[in-house]
Write a structure and sequence with these properties.
This protein is of the alpha+beta class. The chain is 33% helix and 20% strand. It contains five helices and six strands. The chain has a three-stranded antiparallel β-sheet. 21% of the residues are buried.
Length: 138
């Protein structure tokens, strides 16, 4: 059993060949990825299988969905099992207006937000937009 298969099993996800390939693809890219990019990378795969895989990954805390303002949901791998939980991982996302890439800035945390009693947060999203280090030439 390889490392990716062990990771998937630790999230209680059966490590099928397609799930392993998608996980490796996302890990290699190290940025938020739209479902259409995954479909392009795996043109011979069934679109429903790809979509179902991402939904399984999201449900089991392997990836989190990012709304970066483009109107296209993107998905990024979580750092650890608990890091996709609202109370555990409130990090900033950065969207570059030139290369159109969105990345997780996990070292830059969103401060804890105290909501009134009875409010139950399910998702927190902070997207900073601008020019990434690759495009700025710094």
């Amino acid at each position: 059993m390889n490392d990716v298969e062990r990771i998937l099993e630790s999230y209680e996800v059966r490590p099928t060949a397609m799930r392993t390939l998608i996980y490796k693809f996302m890990a290699k890219n190290n940025r938020a990825i739209a479902l259409s990019e995954i479909e392009t990378a795996f043109v011979k795969a069934d679109r429903a299988t790809l979509s179902r895989t991402i939904k399984i990954f999201e449900k089991n805390g392997i990836v989190h969905q990012i709304d970066d303002g483009t109107g296209i949901p993107k998905y990024a791998l979580c750092e650890t099992r608990s890091n996709c939980e609202v109370e555990q991982d409130l990090h900033i996302h950065f969207h570059c207006k030139y290369c159109d890439e969105t990345v997780c800035l996990t070292d830059h945390k969103i401060p804890h937000i105290n909501l009134p009693e009875g409010y139950m947060p399910e998702n927190v999203n902070l997207v900073v937009k601008g020019i990434c280090e690759k495009c700025s030439g710094v």
